[in-house]
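Appendix B, example 12.
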Amino acid sequence: MSEFPEGFLWGGATAANQLEGGYQEGGRGLSIADRLPGGKDRFKIVSQPDFDWTIDTDKYTYPNHEGIDFYHHYKEDIALFAEMGFKCYRFSIAWSRIFPNGDETQPNEAGLKFYDDVIDECLANNIEPVITISHYELPLNLAKRYGGWKNRYLIEFYETFARTILTRYASKVKYWMTFNEINSAVHFPVMGQGLVLSTGANDKKNVFQAWHNQFVASAKAVKIAHELRDDIQVGCMILYATSYAYDSNPVNQLANLQHNQDFNFFCADVQVRGAYPTYTKRLLAEYNLTFDDLETTDGDLALLQQYPVDYIGFSYYMSSAVETTGSVTDTVAGNLMGGVKNPFLKASDWGWQIDPTGLRIALNELHDRYQKPLFVVENGLGAIDKPDKNFYVEDDYRIDYLKQHIEAMAGAIDDGVDLMGYTPWGCIDLVSASTGEMSKRYGFIYVDLDDQGHGTLARYPKKSFYWYQDVIKHNGLTKK
């Protein structure tokens, strides 16, 4: 048996915009996720110059509107999580459910009450809530009227939102994260920063300004949280893709080092260490920028230094390889990013390279760099599940994927890594963020809903449900 530390937080993860539904119920306002069309071309559509956040139901479907209707099924779903033995459940609070336009001064009480009920249901089932404050669901008004996170006004609006929910829930919720996959804006700033081409998504100055504003907002949230509760834990959350130089060519080795700095470490360096790293100068220079081009204040930098995050949450699905000479032409897809094909790895149904050893490497790299607790808050296999006539799915491929990654985590713990917990992504089937599909399934629980929105929404445990139940029961993998 590979046993994990006592108190290890086994659980699962979701996001409000991908499962809640009820998108116009309870006083909720619209978010940017409500404007993302369904289908594999959703990123191509929102990357067009004329994309203006308009809903066009004649041309597109919008599966995020319904999600899997967690809004009305949360008690049933949390009961299933409890049956698996979850110690924690990572979910997000929809900003527009609390502040419908994002810039109000008074919150929507109906939205707050909904999360009261969700949190209380978790606690009644001995499940620790782990809350992401902002998970790809910026209020639409803040994207349209203010141009997204490049606007410093959003620091103030986020602070109001964070103060409201932290004050309301801090006595019940110990674990928080400020921004989901904050570094994903390197490749696609629409999700995390609310930037599209018409509001300057292709101008890296806007992306770096948006990051700076988010760093400041994150520090403010840490400050608020620590003033409310001594033992509260507020983490950052990054997308981590272990990266390899394709070969021993020194050019590729250097490119890989810089890629790691720019993608895997930059946002964490600022939020964990409390200051911009020295390589910021080189990174900005690549886009003909200097730090003076950004709107910052001495107060901002002091705040970053005084209120770094308490732990590092990260998603890990895949690794990448860096090749800069042009000698390799085979490419693969990935989590908001792609790259050259690694010949040593297999890929998922969606072309994401499967690399459990890369997770052990990631855990060691992050722990060696920061010496802070780590939390794997997303990991999983998106696959086409084919249920039998009783809606039972024999998803041995998912079990195999998760088993290998849990073994990698056990190895990292043996290496001395301080690992807090593990919340596989999409613990119940939900709408995929990257493709807007239900058919790209991650869950331990099958939801009867297809890509066109047809189905009963009934929930059915998969084979992996019972396997994960056993993992949690034994606090690790058994050797059987």
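The mean pLDDT is 95. The CA atoms of residues 182 and 238 lie 6 Å apart.
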